[in-house]
Specification:
By secondary structure, the chain is an alpha/beta fold. Helix content is 51%, strand content 10%. The protein contains 28 helices and 15 strands. Strand 8, helix 21 and strand 9 (496-502) form a beta-alpha-beta unit. Helix 8 (174-187) packs antiparallel against helix 9 (194-200) and helix 20 (424-437) crosses helix 23 (533-550).
């Protein structure tokens, strides 16, 4: 048994089963288990192969699976295996949910470009874009005529061994690069505008990468950036102009990818965060555009089955749903052999060798646990974790568990900070969460593209103001944002105006009139917050964790039977409130100091008031299920449920009821019509105890 105890200690230290979630599909911490959802994986790869053989064929796909069934793991596998095929070349772009539907194509372009500038391999400078361009250059140079035979030999050796090295080993050979650029402009004049080759040829200079990325995103460049790239800066001042430019750039990138016979899988995940009709329609426009106009790209939506069938499908026009459903795949649970393979892979990772014979669990015990039914990958890992945890006193409070999850997200963003370009929408979401947990009302419908949102204290209405997040790189756009702040202060001298920029977007000293306007803004009482690396990372981590929790992708341990369950939004907000003035939330502490906010004292998680609230929530949950079970198809309107609760002496309201329904979204399906909201019990919960 001593050997078993040693195994158990290793598992407690390395924690291979502590997390069942893949927060980022580009993470490759644990080994893949190819047999899980193998058929679906190969079906998607077959679509890529079909696209490479016939680039004009319109393709899209829909992968359905409940939370924990491996949607993000599947994307992870496709990223891992992108270089594993002799007859196939593809890359994967992972798209987070959109925040601003008015900028549908600008957002899609930013996400695509961000993914194209991920490294081909970890700790390896060349990016996916370097690889795509190197393949195009290879085609041109292998058939080129060289006067210098030594140079020809060197070029061919590089192209044969590793084409991306051409950006580094021949960086200073100006005549070679001029000839390559001219050849590409001539060869592909019908595919891409010549300017795109002119800009991308400069990827060999690392100090120009930021300017190249900004240009590809159709962001307005200042004079210095434009001069570096030898181009004229475009002035895209209106949202419609930016949207059209973004559409054109996506088409150009698609053609560029197609030239080297690559395909780009555009993977849309966490669709639970499409939480209003405008966002849903924006997603539909993305899918339609990619299928019809970006022929080297294949949109693939990853979605919970009930969310698709009961909500999203009904909100799309038929064209969108038919395109996605033309290739529909449903993720299945794991059988006993796959469950054993998954556990064995994690044990091998933890011990550093495969000679473990499933210790400390034992094969017979595991077979008995997993032989009765199919299980999700998340459930298998959670069950294994329960076998490791034997002392209930080791269960960490929920707030502390979420703090650890946050620190992991935060550290990952810091480790890859250069990949997280200043992103207005994600900073906005993090700031909105701050104001909401501080009991401010937030209004994003301000009708001004320079103002992100208006805030006011929900109770006393004594503090109010606006937030301006400005990451523009052109003096006119920056000046317009600052002027909005000055104008607002002139009309509302007692209000707060918070102006945010990223330290990577500092104002150049030569922008004399813009800097003068900023000084005036501060003189009139405006507050400037230039986000440093840590503060920007805080905001990114908060937003990404918020996405993951809404999708049900973050689990927490509970004392009840050492089980694990999905973290709720309420618990996430409680964690933020409790942590708001502590490290690493330095930005939120700054905001609280500016607004002179006192820390609101909340009851401890385990005090009597919270216990009473939990008891009431459980009663509402039980009575809701009790109300639904006798109904036809086990469904009823929220009005009928509230009436049933009242008849049973439980006073509630629509907000409280829906909060509980959303918290237990693994048990219920919500149907929203024009006149009422319908709640239905999911099939797997029809006979279960509340």
């Amino acid at each position: 048994m001593k050997k078993d105890v040693n195994y158990l200690e290793i598992l407690k230290q390395r924690k291979p089963f502590a997390s069942s979630n893949v927060s980022d599909p580009k993470d490759h911490l644990f080994p893949d288990v190819p047999s899980i959802n193998a058929d679906i994986y190969h079906s998607v790869i077959d679509l890529v192969r079909m696209k490479s053989q016939n680039p004009t064929i319109p393709l899209a796909a829909l992968v359905l699976g409940e939370a924990g069934y491996g949607k993000t793991h599947l994307i992870n596998r496709m990223i891992r295996n992108a270089d594993s095929y002799q007859d196939l070349s593809y890359r994967v772009a992972y798209i987070q949910p959109i925040e601003d539907p008015a900028q549908t194509y600008s957002y899609l372009l930013r996400e695509i470009v961000t993914n194209l500038f991920y490294p081909i391999k970890n700790n390896y400078p060349p990016t996916i874009m370097h690889g795509i361009l190197a393949e195009i250059i290879k085609k041109a140079l292998l058939t080129a005529t060289f006067n210098n035979q030594a140079l020809k030999k060197k070029v061919h050796k590089i192209l044969h061994n590793n084409p991306v090295d051409i950006f580094y080993e021949l960086q200073s050979n100006m005549s070679l690069w001029i000839n390559v650029e001219n050849k590409l402009k001539q060869a592909y004049s019908n595919d891409c505008p010549p300017e795109i080759f002119q800009v991308l040829m400069q990827l060999r200079y690392s100090d120009r990468r930021f300017a190249i990325i900004e240009w590809l995103k159709c962001n307005t460049l200042d004079r210095d950036m434009a001069e570096k790239l030898h181009i004229q800066p475009a002035n895209l001042s209106s949202i419609p102009a930016k949207e059209q430019a973004a559409r054109d750039m996506i088409k150009n990138l698609s053609k560029l990818i197609g030239i080297c016979n690559h395909s780009l899988l555009i993977c849309f995940d966490r669709l639970e965060n499409l939480d209003n009709d405008d966002k849903v329609q924006s997603f539909g426009r993305m899918v339609t555009f990619l299928v019809d106009d970006a022929r080297a790209m294949i949109p693939v939506a990853f979605c919970r089955g009930d969310l698709w069938q009961n909500i999203l499908k009904n909100k799309f026009n038929r064209h969108v749903s038919e395109r996605l459903e033309s290739n529909t795949f449903e993720l299945l649970g794991c059988d006993v052999n796959q469950a054993l393979e998954l556990i064995a892979s994690r044990l091998t990772w933890a011990y550093g060798h495969a000679d473990h014979n499933y210790q400390p669990f034992g094969l017979e015990k595991l077979e008995k646990i997993f032989s009765h039914r199919l299980r999700s990958t998340r459930n298998i890992i959670q069950k294994a974790n329960k076998l490791v945890i034997k002392d209930p006193t080791t269960i960490t409070p929920v707030v502390n568990q979420l703090k650890e999850q946050f620190r992991a997200h935060y550290q990952k963003v810091l480790d890859e900070f250069d990949r997280h370009a200043p992103e207005r929408n994600r900073i906005q979401r993090a700031l909105r969460l701050f104001f909401e947990i501080k009991d401010f009302s937030v209004d994003t419908r301000f009708g001004d593209k320079y103002i992100d949102f208006y805030f006011s204290q929900a109770i006393k209405n004594t503090k109010q103001g606006i937030v301006i997040i400005d990451f523009e790189n052109h003096h006119r756009a920056v000046g317009a944002s600052i002027k909005r702040g000055i104008d607002f202060l002139n009309k509302n001298p007692q209000a707060y105006v918070l102006y945010f920029r990223d330290e990577r977007c500092l104002l150049p000293s030569r922008w004399k009139s813009t800097n003068a306007a900023l000084d005036q803004f501060k003189h009139q009482g405006g507050h400037t917050l230039f986000l440093d690396r840590n503060e920007a990372a805080q905001c990114f981590a908060i937003t990404l964790m918020n996405y993951a929790i809404k999708e049900g992708d973050i689990s927490i341990e509970t004392k009840a039977d050492f089980d694990m369950r999905k973290a709720s939004i309420d618990e996430f907000l409680h964690f933020l409130h409790e942590s708001i003035s502590r490290e690493p939330f330095t930005l939120f502490k700054k905001l609280a100091d500016i607004l002179k906010l006192r820390k609101k004292i909340h009851p401890k998680v385990n005090d009597a008031a919270t216990q009473d609230s939990k008891t009431k929530n459980q009663m509402i949950l039980n009575k809701t299920i009790e109300c639904l079970r006798p109904q036809s198809m086990m469904m009823a309107s929220t009005d009928n449920i509230l009436a049933y609760l009242s008849d049973n002496h439980i006073q509630s309201n629509i907000d409280e009821l829906m909060r509980i329904i959303k918290r237990f979204n693994d048990r219920f399906v919500v149907h929203q019509s024009k006149t009422e909201t319908i709640i239905m019990i999911k099939k797997e919960w029809m006979n279960a105890q509340p």
